[in-house]
């Protein structure tokens, strides 16, 4: 599915929305291309025109293609694509013509707002490569903060670059991130496998103020969070993660029962995490199957976190709870994670899907 959207953003604090939204959807299957059904909806102080596909339509389909849309350079509009990786959704911006993001963190907050903007967990920019890499990836979270990188985001980044460069078949490229070199590979089936590099276990580098208890690492260490004692392992995948499988009085978590919105912020802003932290709550289903819910630093509860899934498998291996190759079930779907013993790198494989193309006035 593809669509183009024109959105006039207003500040999230305003109680009225002045917008003009035009969507053009183009659907295709291996059997046919459906025709287009036009619908007009009237709302107070706004006008929304939607063109969507329907097998009941008698109108001709629109001819907008991804390549023609992505090649547009008219200003002062920002053209973008929206992707999701297992429901972790992002606005992708072609930023290859300049080394600075085209919008500010404050504008990214407006863009990510799900009521007054496009709606996303973050805005990702495709910038020119540095230090010999093909591209540079930067991301602004929905709260305006800038993380080192994002696992689901880098898969979406790879699919977006493939469209920008008109790449087909199996291919890979190098990406400079705040977490170092990342190498995504788009596979024949459309999934993306990413070499996430080596996990960082040294406590001071994660960073955490918790005292190391295993080879300079924090593994199954006790952490008091608002009076509850949790067992936590700390891992960095270029960004900090706190992973917990158990706590005092409960050896195994049932993650569906967690009140994530209550407990997540207490972990994120705990004093032992000087750079805040992402937090993964994990249920062990078998030695090769884990179930996880995540509270992301700067984004809150999300449907998936790629770096979190990687950190989870590393933590599970360190605690003796799983093998090195696991399926990690997230609310948005599964990721395949492997922590290879031969090179100490973590590999993540999963989907990244286009939602629509859009443009908005700057």
Helix and strand topology:
Blueprint: E1 20-24, E2 36-43, E3 46-53, H1 66-70, E4 77-85, E5 88-94, H2 105-112, E6 122-128, E7 135-141, H3 151-164, E8 171-172, E9 175-177, E10 180-186, E11 192-195, E12 221-225, E13 228-236, E14 240-247, H4 260-268, E15 278-286, E16 289-296, E17 300-302, H5 306-318, E18 325-330, E19 333-339, E20 346-350, E21 353-361
Parallel strand pairs: 1-3, 5-6, 7-9, 14-15, 16-18
Antiparallel strand pairs: 2-3, 4-5, 4-21, 6-7, 8-10, 9-10, 10-11, 11-20, 12-13, 13-14, 15-16, 16-17, 18-19, 19-20
GO biological process, one term: lysine biosynthetic process via diaminopimelate
InterPro entries: DAP_epimerase_AS (IPR018510), DAP_epimerase_DapF (IPR001653)
Keywords: Amino-acid biosynthesis, Isomerase, Lysine biosynthesis
Please explain how this structure is put together.
The chain has 362 residues and is mainly beta. It folds into two domains: 120 residues, Diaminopimelate Epimerase, Chain A, domain 1; 147 residues, Roll (Diaminopimelate Epimerase, Chain A, domain 1). It is 14% helix and 38% strand. It contains five helices and 21 strands. It has an 18-stranded mixed sheet that branches. The chain has a three-stranded mixed sheet with strand order 1-3-2, with no helix packed on it. The protein is globular and about 60 Å long. The two termini are 25 Å apart.
